[in-house]
Amino acid sequence: MHQERVNKVLDLMAQKNLTQMIISDPSAIFYLTGTWIQPGERLLALYLTQTGKHKLFVNELFPFADAIQCDKVWLNDNMDGIGVLAEYVEKDKPVAIDKNWPARFLIGLIDKKAGSAFVNGSEIVDRVRMVKDAEEIKLMREASRLNDLAIGRVIELMKEDYDEVEVERKLSEIWEELGADGHSFEPIIGYGANAADPHHSITKGAHKKPGDSIVIDMGCLYKSYCSDMTRTVFYKSVSDEGRKVYEITRDANLKAIDKVKPGVTFAELDAAARDYITDHGYGKYFTHRLGHSIGIDIHEPGDVSAANTEQVVPGRIFSIEPGIYLPGNLGVRVEDLVLVTEDGCEVLNHFTKDLIVVE
Known about the structure:
six-stranded mixed β-sheet; Creatinase_N; Creatine Amidinohydrolase, Chain A, domain 1; 2 domains; 9 helices; four-stranded mixed β-sheet; Creatine Amidinohydrolase
Protein backbone atom coordinates (compact mmCIF):
# COMPACT_ATOMS: atom_id res chain seq x y z
CA MET A 1 0.00 0.00 0.00
CA HIS A 2 1.08 3.58 -0.65
CA GLN A 3 0.50 4.57 2.98
CA GLU A 4 1.01 8.30 2.44
CA ARG A 5 -1.69 8.32 -0.25
CA VAL A 6 -4.00 6.21 1.92
CA ASN A 7 -3.49 8.64 4.80
CA LYS A 8 -4.50 11.57 2.59
CA VAL A 9 -7.70 9.75 1.68
CA LEU A 10 -8.40 9.02 5.34
CA ASP A 11 -7.80 12.69 6.22
CA LEU A 12 -10.35 13.84 3.65
CA MET A 13 -12.79 11.22 4.88
CA ALA A 14 -12.40 12.56 8.41
CA GLN A 15 -13.09 16.09 7.22
CA LYS A 16 -16.42 14.79 5.89
CA ASN A 17 -17.11 12.82 9.09
CA LEU A 18 -16.79 9.51 7.27
CA THR A 19 -15.31 6.49 9.02
CA GLN A 20 -15.47 3.98 6.16
CA MET A 21 -15.22 3.89 2.40
CA ILE A 22 -15.43 1.30 -0.37
CA ILE A 23 -13.10 1.95 -3.31
CA SER A 24 -13.86 0.00 -6.46
CA ASP A 25 -12.30 1.89 -9.38
CA PRO A 26 -9.29 -0.16 -10.62
CA SER A 27 -7.33 3.05 -11.30
CA ALA A 28 -7.88 4.24 -7.74
CA ILE A 29 -6.95 0.84 -6.33
CA PHE A 30 -3.75 0.89 -8.39
CA TYR A 31 -3.02 4.41 -7.12
CA LEU A 32 -3.34 3.28 -3.50
CA THR A 33 -1.77 -0.18 -3.74
CA GLY A 34 0.61 -0.08 -6.72
CA THR A 35 -1.06 -3.14 -8.28
CA TRP A 36 -3.43 -3.33 -11.24
CA ILE A 37 -6.40 -5.64 -10.86
CA GLN A 38 -8.93 -5.68 -13.69
CA PRO A 39 -11.83 -7.65 -12.19
CA GLY A 40 -14.10 -7.87 -15.22
CA GLU A 41 -17.55 -8.83 -13.95
CA ARG A 42 -16.23 -9.95 -10.55
CA LEU A 43 -16.34 -8.01 -7.31
CA LEU A 44 -13.27 -6.00 -6.34
CA ALA A 45 -13.32 -3.62 -3.40
CA LEU A 46 -10.79 -1.91 -1.16
CA TYR A 47 -12.42 -1.19 2.19
CA LEU A 48 -10.80 1.69 4.07
CA THR A 49 -11.68 2.49 7.66
CA GLN A 50 -10.48 5.05 10.17
CA THR A 51 -9.60 2.16 12.51
CA GLY A 52 -6.84 1.14 10.07
CA LYS A 53 -8.32 -2.31 9.58
CA HIS A 54 -8.33 -2.04 5.80
CA LYS A 55 -9.41 -5.01 3.70
CA LEU A 56 -9.03 -5.87 0.03
CA PHE A 57 -11.88 -8.03 -1.24
CA VAL A 58 -10.52 -9.84 -4.27
CA ASN A 59 -11.25 -12.99 -6.25
CA GLU A 60 -8.95 -16.01 -6.05
CA LEU A 61 -8.51 -15.69 -9.81
CA PHE A 62 -6.02 -12.90 -9.06
CA PRO A 63 -3.41 -14.57 -6.80
CA PHE A 64 -0.83 -11.85 -7.57
CA ALA A 65 -2.90 -9.58 -5.31
CA ASP A 66 -1.38 -11.44 -2.37
CA ALA A 67 1.67 -9.18 -2.71
CA ILE A 68 -0.39 -6.11 -1.73
CA GLN A 69 0.44 -5.06 1.83
CA CYS A 70 -3.12 -5.17 3.09
CA ASP A 71 -5.35 -7.77 4.71
CA LYS A 72 -7.15 -9.75 2.02
CA VAL A 73 -10.58 -11.33 2.02
CA TRP A 74 -10.46 -13.89 -0.75
CA LEU A 75 -13.60 -14.50 -2.77
CA ASN A 76 -14.46 -17.09 -5.37
CA ASP A 77 -17.16 -17.58 -7.99
CA ASN A 78 -19.23 -19.81 -5.68
CA MET A 79 -19.54 -17.18 -2.95
CA ASP A 80 -21.91 -14.29 -2.32
CA GLY A 81 -19.23 -11.60 -2.44
CA ILE A 82 -21.56 -8.80 -1.39
CA GLY A 83 -22.77 -10.89 1.52
CA VAL A 84 -19.16 -11.36 2.62
CA LEU A 85 -18.38 -7.66 2.25
CA ALA A 86 -21.52 -6.71 4.20
CA GLU A 87 -20.23 -8.62 7.21
CA TYR A 88 -17.27 -6.26 7.51
CA VAL A 89 -19.04 -2.93 6.98
CA GLU A 90 -20.12 -0.99 10.06
CA LYS A 91 -23.87 -1.06 9.61
CA ASP A 92 -24.64 1.81 11.99
CA LYS A 93 -22.43 4.30 10.12
CA PRO A 94 -22.52 5.90 6.65
CA VAL A 95 -20.50 4.25 3.88
CA ALA A 96 -18.72 6.30 1.22
CA ILE A 97 -18.83 4.60 -2.18
CA ASP A 98 -16.25 5.26 -4.88
CA LYS A 99 -17.30 5.63 -8.51
CA ASN A 100 -17.47 2.99 -11.25
CA TRP A 101 -18.97 0.23 -9.09
CA PRO A 102 -21.61 -1.80 -10.96
CA ALA A 103 -25.14 -1.19 -9.72
CA ARG A 104 -25.62 -4.92 -9.01
CA PHE A 105 -22.98 -4.66 -6.26
CA LEU A 106 -24.07 -1.33 -4.79
CA ILE A 107 -27.77 -2.16 -4.80
CA GLY A 108 -26.99 -5.52 -3.26
CA LEU A 109 -25.11 -3.81 -0.44
CA ILE A 110 -27.96 -1.34 0.07
CA ASP A 111 -30.49 -4.18 0.17
CA LYS A 112 -28.47 -5.81 2.94
CA LYS A 113 -28.58 -2.50 4.88
CA ALA A 114 -24.80 -2.61 5.25
CA GLY A 115 -24.56 0.98 6.43
CA SER A 116 -26.77 3.69 7.87
CA ALA A 117 -26.44 5.70 4.64
CA PHE A 118 -24.60 5.49 1.32
CA VAL A 119 -22.80 8.59 0.06
CA ASN A 120 -20.79 9.42 -3.03
CA GLY A 121 -17.15 9.28 -2.01
CA SER A 122 -15.68 9.65 -5.49
CA GLU A 123 -14.45 13.20 -4.92
CA ILE A 124 -12.33 12.08 -1.97
CA VAL A 125 -9.97 9.83 -3.94
CA ASP A 126 -10.21 12.08 -7.00
CA ARG A 127 -9.06 15.10 -5.00
CA VAL A 128 -6.08 13.27 -3.56
CA ARG A 129 -5.11 12.07 -7.04
CA MET A 130 -5.35 15.58 -8.50
CA VAL A 131 -2.03 16.67 -6.97
CA LYS A 132 0.78 14.52 -8.30
CA ASP A 133 3.64 13.45 -6.03
CA ALA A 134 7.30 13.41 -7.03
CA GLU A 135 7.24 9.87 -8.40
CA GLU A 136 4.15 10.54 -10.51
CA ILE A 137 5.68 13.72 -11.91
CA LYS A 138 8.83 11.83 -12.85
CA LEU A 139 6.82 9.20 -14.74
CA MET A 140 4.70 11.78 -16.53
CA ARG A 141 7.76 13.74 -17.62
CA GLU A 142 9.14 10.57 -19.16
CA ALA A 143 5.84 9.71 -20.83
CA SER A 144 5.80 13.18 -22.40
CA ARG A 145 9.44 12.85 -23.47
CA LEU A 146 8.55 9.67 -25.34
CA ASN A 147 5.56 11.45 -26.88
CA ASP A 148 7.86 14.22 -28.15
CA LEU A 149 10.10 11.62 -29.79
CA ALA A 150 7.20 9.74 -31.31
CA ILE A 151 5.36 12.68 -32.80
CA GLY A 152 8.46 13.71 -34.72
CA ARG A 153 8.53 10.27 -36.29
CA VAL A 154 4.81 10.38 -37.06
CA ILE A 155 5.20 13.71 -38.84
CA GLU A 156 7.94 12.13 -40.95
CA LEU A 157 5.44 9.42 -41.94
CA MET A 158 3.24 12.12 -43.44
CA LYS A 159 5.66 12.34 -46.37
CA GLU A 160 4.33 8.94 -47.48
CA ASP A 161 0.90 8.08 -48.85
CA TYR A 162 -0.36 6.28 -45.76
CA ASP A 163 -4.03 6.38 -44.86
CA GLU A 164 -5.05 7.27 -41.31
CA VAL A 165 -5.29 3.64 -40.21
CA GLU A 166 -1.80 2.85 -41.48
CA VAL A 167 -0.36 5.78 -39.52
CA GLU A 168 -2.04 4.53 -36.34
CA ARG A 169 -0.60 1.06 -36.93
CA LYS A 170 2.90 2.45 -37.37
CA LEU A 171 2.50 4.55 -34.25
CA SER A 172 1.88 1.35 -32.28
CA GLU A 173 5.21 0.07 -33.58
CA ILE A 174 6.92 3.33 -32.60
CA TRP A 175 5.66 3.03 -29.02
CA GLU A 176 7.08 -0.48 -28.79
CA GLU A 177 10.45 0.65 -30.14
CA LEU A 178 10.60 3.55 -27.66
CA GLY A 179 9.76 1.38 -24.65
CA ALA A 180 6.29 2.76 -24.01
CA ASP A 181 3.38 0.53 -23.00
CA GLY A 182 1.15 1.39 -25.95
CA HIS A 183 -1.44 4.11 -26.53
CA SER A 184 -2.84 6.05 -23.59
CA PHE A 185 -5.97 6.58 -25.72
CA GLU A 186 -7.11 5.85 -29.25
CA PRO A 187 -5.09 8.37 -31.28
CA ILE A 188 -6.67 10.89 -33.61
CA ILE A 189 -5.16 11.20 -37.08
CA GLY A 190 -7.32 13.53 -39.14
CA TYR A 191 -6.65 14.65 -42.70
CA GLY A 192 -8.29 17.74 -44.21
CA ALA A 193 -12.02 17.82 -43.51
CA ASN A 194 -11.54 14.97 -41.00
CA ALA A 195 -9.33 17.33 -38.99
CA ALA A 196 -12.38 19.56 -38.51
CA ASP A 197 -13.95 16.87 -36.32
CA PRO A 198 -12.42 17.33 -32.83
CA HIS A 199 -12.94 13.64 -31.93
CA HIS A 200 -12.53 12.15 -35.38
CA SER A 201 -12.33 8.36 -35.55
CA ILE A 202 -9.46 7.12 -37.71
CA THR A 203 -10.78 6.14 -41.14
CA LYS A 204 -9.48 3.38 -43.38
CA GLY A 205 -8.85 4.65 -46.89
CA ALA A 206 -8.66 8.31 -45.85
CA HIS A 207 -5.72 9.86 -47.69
CA LYS A 208 -4.35 13.38 -47.50
CA LYS A 209 -4.12 15.80 -50.39
CA PRO A 210 -2.02 18.95 -50.90
CA GLY A 211 -3.14 21.80 -48.69
CA ASP A 212 -4.74 19.55 -46.04
CA SER A 213 -4.25 20.27 -42.39
CA ILE A 214 -3.37 17.12 -40.41
CA VAL A 215 -4.34 16.90 -36.75
CA ILE A 216 -2.22 14.41 -34.79
CA ASP A 217 -3.52 13.84 -31.25
CA MET A 218 -1.57 11.06 -29.53
CA GLY A 219 -0.15 9.82 -26.27
CA CYS A 220 1.49 6.81 -24.68
CA LEU A 221 1.37 4.91 -21.44
CA TYR A 222 4.59 4.71 -19.47
CA LYS A 223 4.53 2.63 -16.29
CA SER A 224 0.76 3.25 -16.04
CA TYR A 225 0.94 7.04 -16.53
CA CYS A 226 -0.40 8.87 -19.56
CA SER A 227 0.94 11.44 -21.97
CA ASP A 228 -1.14 13.48 -24.39
CA MET A 229 -0.18 16.02 -27.05
CA THR A 230 -1.58 17.42 -30.29
CA ARG A 231 0.26 19.01 -33.15
CA THR A 232 -1.19 20.13 -36.48
CA VAL A 233 0.86 20.17 -39.67
CA PHE A 234 0.04 20.86 -43.30
CA TYR A 235 0.69 18.68 -46.33
CA LYS A 236 2.63 20.14 -49.29
CA SER A 237 1.21 23.66 -48.85
CA VAL A 238 -0.79 25.85 -46.53
CA SER A 239 -3.46 28.34 -47.55
CA ASP A 240 -3.59 31.85 -46.19
CA GLU A 241 -6.60 30.89 -44.09
CA GLY A 242 -4.88 27.74 -42.86
CA ARG A 243 -1.84 29.74 -41.78
CA LYS A 244 -4.05 32.32 -40.06
CA VAL A 245 -6.05 29.68 -38.18
CA TYR A 246 -2.89 27.87 -37.16
CA GLU A 247 -1.21 30.99 -35.79
CA ILE A 248 -4.31 32.04 -33.85
CA THR A 249 -4.64 28.57 -32.30
CA ARG A 250 -0.96 28.34 -31.41
CA ASP A 251 -0.96 31.81 -29.89
CA ALA A 252 -4.09 30.97 -27.86
CA ASN A 253 -2.22 27.93 -26.52
CA LEU A 254 0.74 30.12 -25.56
CA LYS A 255 -1.45 32.78 -23.92
CA ALA A 256 -3.19 30.23 -21.72
CA ILE A 257 0.11 28.58 -20.76
CA ASP A 258 1.60 31.96 -19.89
CA LYS A 259 -1.27 32.51 -17.44
CA VAL A 260 -0.83 29.23 -15.52
CA LYS A 261 0.28 29.79 -11.93
CA PRO A 262 -1.07 29.00 -8.46
CA GLY A 263 -4.17 31.01 -7.65
CA VAL A 264 -5.51 31.43 -11.18
CA THR A 265 -8.76 29.59 -11.83
CA PHE A 266 -9.31 26.99 -14.51
CA ALA A 267 -12.07 29.22 -15.87
CA GLU A 268 -9.58 32.06 -16.30
CA LEU A 269 -7.26 29.79 -18.26
CA ASP A 270 -10.10 28.76 -20.53
CA ALA A 271 -11.01 32.42 -21.04
CA ALA A 272 -7.43 33.40 -21.90
CA ALA A 273 -7.48 31.12 -24.95
CA ARG A 274 -11.17 31.40 -25.81
CA ASP A 275 -11.30 35.20 -25.69
CA TYR A 276 -8.25 35.43 -27.93
CA ILE A 277 -9.80 33.11 -30.50
CA THR A 278 -13.13 34.95 -30.26
CA ASP A 279 -11.46 38.34 -30.71
CA HIS A 280 -10.02 37.03 -33.98
CA GLY A 281 -13.43 35.97 -35.27
CA TYR A 282 -13.29 32.20 -34.73
CA GLY A 283 -15.01 31.84 -31.34
CA LYS A 284 -17.88 29.69 -32.59
CA TYR A 285 -15.38 27.25 -34.09
CA PHE A 286 -13.71 26.52 -30.74
CA THR A 287 -16.23 23.93 -29.67
CA HIS A 288 -14.77 22.22 -26.59
CA ARG A 289 -13.24 23.00 -23.22
CA LEU A 290 -9.64 24.12 -23.09
CA GLY A 291 -8.31 21.01 -21.41
CA HIS A 292 -8.53 18.14 -18.94
CA SER A 293 -6.59 16.77 -16.01
CA ILE A 294 -4.48 13.68 -16.64
CA GLY A 295 -2.48 11.06 -14.77
CA ILE A 296 -3.18 7.35 -14.47
CA ASP A 297 -6.29 7.99 -16.56
CA ILE A 298 -6.21 10.05 -19.73
CA HIS A 299 -9.13 12.19 -18.49
CA GLU A 300 -9.22 12.73 -14.76
CA PRO A 301 -11.58 14.96 -12.73
CA GLY A 302 -10.85 18.68 -12.84
CA ASP A 303 -11.34 20.04 -16.33
CA VAL A 304 -10.06 23.31 -17.76
CA SER A 305 -13.33 24.98 -18.63
CA ALA A 306 -15.49 28.02 -17.98
CA ALA A 307 -17.51 25.91 -15.53
CA ASN A 308 -14.55 25.17 -13.24
CA THR A 309 -13.86 28.11 -10.91
CA GLU A 310 -11.41 26.17 -8.74
CA GLN A 311 -7.91 27.61 -8.40
CA VAL A 312 -4.92 25.67 -9.71
CA VAL A 313 -2.32 24.51 -7.19
CA PRO A 314 1.22 23.14 -7.50
CA GLY A 315 1.33 19.50 -8.58
CA ARG A 316 -1.69 19.64 -10.85
CA ILE A 317 -1.11 18.38 -14.42
CA PHE A 318 -3.56 19.19 -17.19
CA SER A 319 -3.77 19.88 -20.90
CA ILE A 320 -3.99 23.20 -22.71
CA GLU A 321 -5.53 22.40 -26.11
CA PRO A 322 -7.36 25.15 -27.97
CA GLY A 323 -8.68 24.30 -31.42
CA ILE A 324 -10.42 25.87 -34.37
CA TYR A 325 -12.51 23.59 -36.59
CA LEU A 326 -13.94 24.80 -39.90
CA PRO A 327 -16.48 22.15 -41.01
CA GLY A 328 -15.71 20.51 -44.32
CA ASN A 329 -12.48 22.47 -44.63
CA LEU A 330 -9.76 22.17 -42.00
CA GLY A 331 -9.07 21.82 -38.33
CA VAL A 332 -6.21 22.94 -36.09
CA ARG A 333 -5.47 21.96 -32.50
CA VAL A 334 -2.31 22.60 -30.48
CA GLU A 335 -2.02 20.75 -27.17
CA ASP A 336 0.54 20.57 -24.39
CA LEU A 337 0.53 19.18 -20.87
CA VAL A 338 1.50 21.58 -18.09
CA LEU A 339 2.62 20.94 -14.53
CA VAL A 340 1.76 23.69 -12.08
CA THR A 341 4.82 24.81 -10.09
CA GLU A 342 5.18 27.14 -7.11
CA ASP A 343 5.48 30.22 -9.30
CA GLY A 344 4.16 29.23 -12.73
CA CYS A 345 4.20 26.05 -14.75
CA GLU A 346 6.44 23.57 -16.49
CA VAL A 347 5.42 22.58 -20.01
CA LEU A 348 5.96 18.83 -20.32
CA ASN A 349 5.99 18.84 -24.13
CA HIS A 350 8.94 20.30 -26.01
CA PHE A 351 8.20 19.46 -29.63
CA THR A 352 8.11 22.60 -31.75
CA LYS A 353 4.91 24.57 -32.29
CA ASP A 354 6.29 26.34 -35.33
CA LEU A 355 4.09 25.82 -38.39
CA ILE A 356 5.29 22.75 -40.30
CA VAL A 357 4.55 22.07 -43.96
CA VAL A 358 5.38 18.46 -44.80
CA GLU A 359 6.90 18.25 -48.29
